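Is this the right way to post structure tokens for a design question? Let me know if I should format differently. Anyway, here goes:
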């Protein structure tokens, strides 16, 4: 299989590239960072498709700075909506399948339970709106494409909430973390494995892929502290209202799936097990 990865320099793209090259050595993996492939450029994208003739494209490229999206709406729309539309059409032209990564932020958090694939998106901010536009464009481009929604990604590479908490606690600082924002923390290693497996299936449409269970940011941070051998009491509870931000965040967006159990893929682990694995990876890197 010939796999083309867009956004290979981000935390998920980096993880997925490494995962495929280690565990799927028989596949031809072509991974491009942002500076190597501008996914918003039609000419560059179409030329790449003609040259590589991929079987599948995984779009990990996104403008994920949620607050910056509020003031940089055109950039958010170009990267999160127009680029996926271009990718989907270009993929269709060469007979390839697009697997596009999306987010729990397409929901408003008002359901009162976990979100499944059939729930109606109602984004609260520009980031969520632009990602929803991207989903719609991909699904409208052809029946063979797949949208994978995930949430609260963290891993060893790139800035993310888990690394921020660890860095602060390791410096001996106290951190205030919100306890009224609930979601599904997802380790990039687990999502990379899921993607590697789902590429071999014929799944189309929308699928939710997140570590199972739900927790608050506060619970996640305290669990991380304990697993890392740091002081959980250094994580202090706060409310979302204590941290006014330009972009309104949904407060309750755990992701569940009605589809993963019917696919020939390994079910994603619990968020607690995945977080323990993350800490082991960090400690191993520190010892190296």
């Amino acid at each position: 299989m010939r796999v083309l990865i867009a956004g290979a320099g981000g935390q998920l793209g980096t993880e997925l590239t490494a995962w495929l090259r280690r565990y799927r050595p028989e596949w031809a993996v072509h991974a491009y960072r942002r500076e190597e492939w501008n996914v918003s450029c039609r000419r560059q994208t179409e030329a790449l498709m003609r040259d590589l003739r991929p079987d599948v494209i995984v779009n990990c490229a996104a403008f994920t700075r949620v607050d910056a999206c509020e003031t940089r709406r055109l950039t958010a729309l170009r990267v999160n909506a127009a680029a996926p539309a271009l990718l989907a059409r270009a993929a269709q032209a060469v007979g390839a399948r697009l697997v596009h990564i999306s987010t729990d932020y397409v929901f408003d958090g008002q359901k009162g339970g976990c979100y499944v694939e059939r729930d109606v998106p109602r984004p609260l901010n520009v980031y969520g709106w632009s990602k929803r536009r991207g989903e719609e464009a991909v699904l409208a481009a052809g029946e063979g494409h797949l949208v994978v929604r995930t949430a609260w990604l963290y891993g060893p590479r790139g800035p993310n909430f888990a690394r921020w908490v660890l860095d602060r606690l390791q410096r001996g600082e106290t951190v205030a973390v919100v306890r009224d924002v609930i979601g599904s923390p997802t380790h990039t290693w687990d999502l990379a494995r899921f993607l590697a497996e789902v590429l071999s299936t014929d799944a189309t449409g929308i699928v939710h892929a997140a570590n199972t269970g739900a927790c608050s940011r506060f619970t996640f941070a305290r669990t991380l502290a304990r697993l890392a051998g740091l002081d959980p009491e250094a994580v202090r509870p706060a409310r979302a209202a204590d941290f006014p931000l330009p972009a309104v965040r949904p407060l309750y967006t755990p992701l569940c799936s009605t589809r993963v159990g019917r696919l020939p893929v390994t079910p994603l682990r619990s968020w607690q097990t995945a977080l323990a694995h993350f800490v082991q990876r960090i400690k191993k890197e520190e010892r190296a």
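Format looks fine. Someone answered above. Worth noting: The chain has one domain: 2-160+186-213+252-269. The first helix runs from residue 11 to 23.
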